[in-house]
Amino acid sequence: MSLLQINNLNVRFGDANAVPVVDGLDLSVDAGEILAIVGESGSGKSVTMMALMGLIDAPGRITADSLTFDGIDMLKLSGRQRRKVVGKDIAMVFQDPMTALNPSYTVGYQIEEVLRQHLGLKGKAARQRALELLKKVEIPAAESRLDAYPHQLSGGMSQRVAIAMAIAGEPKLLIADEPTTALDVTIQAQIMELLVNLQKERNMALILITHDLAVVAETARRVCVMYAGQAVEVGQVPELFDIPAHPYSEALLAAIPEHSIGAERLATLPGIVPGRYDRPQGCLLSPRCPYVRDNCRAQRPALDPQAHSLVRCFYPLNQEVA
Amino acid sequence: MLSFIARRLGLLIPTFFGITLLTFALIRLIPGDPVEVMMGERRVDPEMHAQAMERLGLNKPLPAQYMDYIGKLAQGDLGESLRSRESVWKEFTTLFPATLELAFCALIFAGVFGLLAGVIAALKRGSLFDHGVMGVSLAGYSMPIFWWGLILIMFSSVSMGWTPVSGRIDPLYDVEPVTGFMLIDTLLVGDEGSFKDAFMHLILPTIVLGTIPLAVIARMTRSSMLEVLREDYIRTARAKGLSPARVVFVHGLRNALIPVLTVFGLQVGTLLAGAVLTETIFSWPGIGKWLIEAIGARDYPVVQNGILLIACLVILVNFVVDILYGLANPRIRHQR
After folding, report:
1. What is the CA radius of gyration of chain B?
2. Pick from A83, A102, A152: CB nearest B241
């Protein structure tokens, strides 16, 4: 049984008829697996994870056929019960480390807070453990950093602290929401390496939300491509990269600058993700899809198994290679 | 931190001289002089007038008078009241506890209810409570103090008979002033009735004086809290599985308090200014009433030095707030 099982997850902001921001999403993650979620801004990647964490407030509405983590139905939990899981068994690392830490408290305090909350560690024991965690995330001079305030740390250092905070509760699932987007390129690689090492060492599942397809190719085993709140293709890593079946996956890969070497301009997919009020009647990609046909505009495809992956398209690409 | 304090202290010197110059000039700009006021309606004999003025040293040119004033100040001499012949310092210290007691109660009242209302309004943003609190606080802020005081007296004291109309304590009770704070002194006496009476006397002036700071603090807390609750670190705190109370008060309010703290300090000035009106309405025997009477009598030393003392107090409070600000906000403390 998978660690995380999401079936038909919908997140709406407003009443039950509002256009869903996450639209019938199915996703599963096994224990100890790295799953990458890619897609352009506004495709619902972060919102999905926020829904899982219980971080969506009114007027946000979450419905799902199942949202099960480690055998627990997350939708049925009371706030108090959910807070026993969130921050402990599921933890999250956010995009901008410079704003994700509370400026008024020391690094040590913010890590110890998790230890106190979830592991019941107090005083010296908590401090000792916080120090170990800082060393674990390879912060130099960890001892002196315990009493540092976030503004005294660099971006990369802050992200390490945020990771230390996230792994403090020994999570079974770590969600990293664009953990390197706000960092310098040189630091990005270090942070990714740290995350992957921690994942291996603790055999925890890692959901990596990212724009960076190169990172996906290097780290993840499976990848889920999202577009306008829907999963459009879910597949194994080398296959999805080599022979993408969904036109959107293909376009994403074509947009990597290295793939346009020698060309006059970078490859792009014209248009933008449809907003809440201009959803097409048919396939959500139909206004932008280079392969669009008449029935694409009239009906929405389902996420169906194809040769190598699950694909939400009437006319999946690259099927003959099979 | 030390250099931070030193720099702040350095700024105080020019402020101090500015205040002396201002109070010195302002009171002399008002028509009339102490001798004329003392003589009252009777025609003043010019010769007697000149003699009296010379005796008070008020016949010298203004710059010379100012130098005299500063010279005395430098020796710590605040002069004596032209009316009572008591030293200004002694009168001030006798009356000040009454004002301080009132201002302190008003600040506590404003702080407790202002913070509470602001936090709840921010958490329930857009609700009836939010609109209600913000509307009422805007009304409170805009209301003239003396009108509000009179309305409260009419309602609470005259119509309902809940609270006494004026004064600090019923003359029935003879309370030996030990600390000058009526609430403490009555407790020291150990008479429950007198404590209750002193407390009842405090209620209306506290509400009247605390209304404006309450409104300012409530609005400031609300907007500051709303801003902070949108911050990423609040999301981080929630993602840690902390309880909503901990997220709001430990992670939210701590940061939201930083700007509110500044407002607190500034409100102390407003409080002392408001005390002048409040004390007059409620016949509260504090420095506000003392100053108003001194201005009427053109009691130059009392006006100059009374205002100077109050100004120093406001400066001191703001200085303390600046230091607290540094303590509350690590980002300021570490600036060099």
Report:
1. 24
2. A83
The C-alpha atoms of residue A30 and residue A5 are separated, in whole angstroms, by 9
Nearest-CA residue of chain B relative to A51?
Answer: B239
Average pLDDT, stretch B67-92?
88
Identify the domain containing residue A34 by its residue range: 1-80+221-279+289-322
pLDDT for B336 equals: 44
A104, A117, A118: which to substitute to probe chain B, counting the most B Cβ within 10 Å? A104
Phi, psi torsion values for A305, nearest 5 degrees: -70, 130
Instruction: Give the residue carrying structure tokens 């699950």.
Output: A310
Whole-prediction pTM: 0.79
3-state secondary structure of A86: strand
User: How many other β-carbons are positioned within 10 Å of the β-carbon of residue B209?
Assistant: 33
Interface ipTM: 0.88
Q: How many domains does chain A have?
A: 1
How many C-beta atoms surround the C-beta of residue A207 within 10 A?
Answer: 25
CA distance A107 to chain B (A): 12
Determine whether the interchain pair B241/A151 forms a contact, defined as Cβ–Cβ distance below 8 Å. Answer: no
In a domain, A149, yes or no: no
Looking at beta carbons, which residues of chain A come within 8 Å of B240?
86-87, 91, 113-114, 117, 165
Domain spanning B88-333: CATH 1.10.3720.10? yes
Q: Which residue of A has its CA nearest to B238?
A: A55
**Percentage of chain A lying above the pLDDT 70 cut:** 99
Determine contact: A300 vs chain B, CB below 8 A. no
What's the confidence (pLDDT) of residue A321?
54
Q: Which residue has the tokens 């009304």?
A: B139
